[in-house]
Design brief:
about 400 residues; elongated; two-stranded antiparallel ribbon; Rossmann fold; 13 strands; alpha/beta
Amino acid sequence: MAIFLEPFDAADLALGVYSVNAGDEDELELFLAKPLFAKQKSSTKVNVQGPKILEAQVGGRIFRRAQDSFGLCARGDGLYRNHLFLVFRGTTEANNKADFVTDARIGITTSKAGLPVHIGFNQTFNSMLPEIREFVAGTDTTGPVHCIGHSLGGAVASLAADWVSRNTSRAVKLYTFGAPRVGTDWFVKQTTSSVGRENMYRVYHKTDPVPMVALYPFMQAPYGSSGHYIYSSEPLISGAAHAMTKYSDSVGSKSWEQVSDIPDQPYDLEAAVEGWLKSKSPIDSGSPAFWRWVDAALIYVVKKVLMGAVLLLQGAFVGILTVADKLAIILERGLHLAEHISLWVELLIRKLLVALGMKVEASKEAITRSLIRQVLVRLTEKANREARNALRKL
């Protein structure tokens, strides 16, 4: 009996689940009839529930709020008999662009496990949780639960995997393609521990902008792993790299070992991050490497300011102030600490000012909390704009 899905099968489900709200009945019927899914059976000896379409709340609390078909619960069949599948679609325009509002709700709230996560993704997952809980509890299977999704669906699949791992005794397998960041360092560490790093298959193209958002303090799971990194043919960040069809083509008939490439820069090495901050070379904010360096540099500098207490900081991001406000407070504080700390804050802000085409003042005193916040807001807006453009081109 199979233990995990091969890359092609996971990609095929992540692509096929878009049919739940595409308005094409024939396409949906083909998806529900996939051999991996058990069909409805009812007799004196057998009582099997067929695939169940999940309805989710997407959009804002008031603005563009919508109730929409979002995913699928299904029992497995064949090699996956005794398994369960939770599959979620990504962002679409089929609901008056309510999904775009979900994606844009970047504040931090707490998950059912009390971990700091993205407000929009958490709301969408929680709206489906009663149906998911009922489906999982209502089956007599004991095999693994496969949580699968592309883009927004990958974010929701991550929350589902964390919930299943904490609230059932079943093994969990998580497969995401081009998924945005779901939670902070605390969420990523705890989810990696509960699900298991070996059970998490995160696939992303080098030039896909969606996995680059939201910016720090949001991070990607599994913790301490670069995931299944795939080189893209596009030299700059591109909407084409985010399409699920592109991911299906990229994984092809490869094994998980064959899917993985090695990132082209040592983004996790302190010396490399310091070298990037000190570098005077031209900055191209359209390059995927730029966003990887920005993320690594933010983590490095914030750790310097807080003397390694980043984990304690995660809970502080939940509250009234925006993430940009809180990061600005931390970084501005760092400017007034010892020179071996304040230097890195100054270099980071100057680097970002240049990348954003903003005026760079010569004096250190010109770098105020207000300016830092303005830089962080513009940086976030630019990253989100690249992601939205990618989603609109699907």
